[in-house]
Amino acid sequence: MSNHRPLEESARGRAVSVLVESYDGDAMCHDLLCDLQAERPLSPADEGLAAELAIGVSRHRITCEHIASKFYRGRWEGVAVTQRVNIAVGIYQLCFLDRIPKYAAVDQTVRIARRYGKGATAVTNAILRQVTEKRGHIVPRMGDYPPRRFLILDSERGRLFTDDVFPDPSRRLLDYLIAQYAHPSWLVERWNRRFKTALCREVLETGQRRPVLSLRANHLRATPGDLMEKLAAESIDAELASDGEGVLIRETASAMDLAVVRDGLSQPQDTTARVALGLRPPKPGEFLIDLCAGVGTKSTQAAEMMANRGTVIATDDNSEKLESVMTAAGRLGIDIIKTVPLGEIDDAIKNAGREPDLILVDAPCLNTGVLARRPEARYRAGQRALTDIAELQREILSHAVSLSGSKTSIIYSTCSLEKEENEDQAAWFVENNDGWQAREQRFTLPSTDHDGGYAVHFIRI
After folding, report:
1. Would the pTM of this model clear 0.85, i.e. be above it?
2. What pLDDT was estimated at residue 254?
3. Is pLDDT above 60 for 174?
4. Which CATH number fits domain 7-133: 3.30.1540.10, 3.30.1360.40, 3.30.70.141, 1.10.940.10?
5. Which of 34, 36, 145, 231 could disulfide-link 238, Cβ–Cβ 3.0 to 4.6 Å?
6. What is the DSSP string of 86-102?
């Protein structure tokens, strides 16, 4: 290892390093890439390639590893994670991308494999050579192709292999869905049971798409129409969002590269995420608490809906995020948001001298409604994780009740598709808190235009 420069100093090496660290879903590729770029900057081109490989492989890793296993003589699960990830990066370049020469994909992957010994080098080279030989051309998706040989790339294209690489869907449907759509078995099994096969496939495929960039118009400064005009002036294609509150940009774009975001005319926020506060719109002059504020996306949404009049207290158990809340508020021209550490929220309410009109609980969850946007989340999901997160959600809801007054409403929301985190929590809340009822609930499946998620509005009776 001492004979090699640090893995993170090349685009492909950085992608491998990030993917290994995020393998179990406990870290986000985007965050790891940003940290590494700050510490050891790559050129813009290499930075972009590292991001494409890390996030793309994270989204398709199960498929890439499945293909690798078809050309490996032995038990694939016994191969070290570092080697599996490196080979997956090579296969992603060979099968999912069409602008990287095959010799470059194979050569660079084999070079990285040398770090893991001669055996790893030989295995990596053998697998990638066979994939190169067996992969066919990219073809239009609308065609009668053998499902065992057809790799879905996106809504319009696929790649046809010369040999069978996928399980037979007529005999092993779940195994086929897992391998083709790169979702873990536990999710595929429960979604197929709950949604039935056709809808399950739609949800799985949505999780493999590159997510659309959705911008919420900052109504303090601009309308959705204004955003459309300004984006058009920069030759950026956009369309109005279905809720009429923002715009969608389908082409690859970084939000902070857009003038309409940098200048505070808009805020990145998915259409489904905007639903929660729509169930009980906060009014000018009201007092709102955002109990799981994160980086402040819903705190700023509330303040805009309140016409920047009233009080929004943003708190979170991760106090480091609260600085981002104020940064976003400053960019958007909002001055009614105050950040308070979670341990000081009771005192903050007392100092306000009034009970909150609305408490927002945008709860931590398994993120199964946003797997296109957070692909790593699929790897940390499991029944144990679901049980643990559901218990935490109930603790947060109970805390919200303790902070509420006689006329306080509570909005609970997640970006999850799981009943245990959504409808079951609403039923538990009503059953265990006298004098409350669920006034309205909204469940949304993910699509090409928006994420999936859930929201419910609780009121006193």
Report:
1. yes
2. 83
3. yes
4. 1.10.940.10
5. 231
6. HHHHHHHHHHT-SSS-H
